[in-house]
Amino acid sequence: xxxxxxxxxxxxxxxxxxxxxxxxxxxxxRLSLQEVEAASSQEFKAxxxxxxxxxxxxxSVPRLQRLADFYRVPVDQLLPRDGEIxxxxxxxxxxxxxxxxxxxxxxxxxxxxxARFQAVDGDPELEMVYRYLSSIQVRRQxxxxxxxxxxxxxxxxxxxxxxxxxxxxxxxxxxxxxxMQPA
Length: 183
Description:
Layout: H1 9-28, H2 33-39, H3 46-54, H4 61-71, E1 109-113, H5 114-119, H6 124-140, E2 147-151, H7 152-161, H8 166-175, E3 179-180
């Protein structure tokens, strides 16, 4: 019995998108399919990994975890990003059991009130965020001292350091009124 299934519709689209992520990570690691096979002691055969990358085969979750460990990346980095997965309608006559939330619309930049950050005491995480922001100021030689604007990707990186998602981090910063709202 083969572990391959002919994929159609959204399942085939998703498999291709997973494959695109797998290929992108492998290429970022500057590895060929054959190098992955050799370095993994043939756990990930070049032909099978290539089929995953083309979306011709579906990778199991345990195998995806082992591949993430091999590439030394979090497993979620091997999956398509939010908004990349087309929502499929439920089969006729069935009600949807899950409500998909629209992906978060991120501003390209986030602005912080540095004066308010200085007033926060006793929170090690917020102190680390402030040190991060201060290091950006030093690199930019931007010492106006009042506000600092950073890329949304920096927020995602900071959130990752704290083991949370960027939305939760921004909500926390908003609750403390540390982020300036766009005009």
